[in-house]
Write a structure and sequence with these properties.
Blueprint: E1 5-8, E2 23-25, H1 28-38, E3 48-51, E4 56-57, E5 62-63, E6 66-72, E7 77-83, E8 100-104, E9 116-118, E10 123-124, E11 131-132, H2 133-146, E12 154-157
Antiparallel strand pairs: 1-2, 1-3, 3-6, 4-5, 6-7, 7-8, 7-11, 8-12, 9-10
Helix pairs in contact: 1-2
InterPro entries: DddI
Pfam family, one: Imm1
Protein name: Immunity protein Imm1
Length: 161
């Protein structure tokens, strides 16, 4: 089974679509087009992605998982933040995991870009979160195929969301 990804992002040429209406991504080629668009059009906020067919939770019927994606245009790198159901529920006794995970790349270098989970507050991803855009695409494609946190990239728990 593959999932429909609902993606909230900004498009200058899409004035007919209200900002609160996501774009549906249903194929690998559409996902690749989305990332290419993000690499050529700076976003005021990190795009948010949910798998439409996953369960919805809580009093506001919110998606149980969410991915935020940030890209550094000139460096062609990106980072993902994965929020799972555990991040909305109180932790079980003795469980200190957050349910919030950021990608983990190699050790940061001097030319690693600063990527932001939240651009308004300038909340950065962990410094070693940046990955080549091809790995970001592979992770998002795996999410589109499985609806689960991708296993093709490494993750680290994060305290930012």
């Amino acid at each position: 089974m593959s999932y429909t990804l609902d993606v909230w992002y900004y498009r200058d040429d899409d004035v007919a679509r209200p900002a609160n209406v996501p774009v549906a991504v249903t194929s690998s080629s559409e996902l690749q087009e989305l990332l290419e668009y993000l690499l050529t059009h700076e976003q005021p906020h990190p795009p948010q992605i949910v798998a439409r067919e996953r369960p919805r939770i809580g009093p506001y019927d919110e998606p149980d998982t969410l991915i935020k994606v940030a890209v550094a245009i000139p460096e062609r790198q990106g980072a993902l933040l994965f929020l799972s159901p555990q991040s909305w529920d109180p932790p079980a006794d003795g469980d200190d995991s957050t349910g919030v995970y950021a990608t983990r790349g190699d050790q940061p270098t001097l030319d690693s870009p600063t990527l932001y989970v939240d651009t308004d507050t300038k909340t950065p991803f962990p410094p070693d979160s940046a990955l080549p855009i091809a790995r970001i695409l592979a992770a998002l494609e795996e999410f589109r195929q499985t609806g689960e946190r991708p296993t093709c990239v490494d993750w680290q728990e994060s305290d930012v969301s």
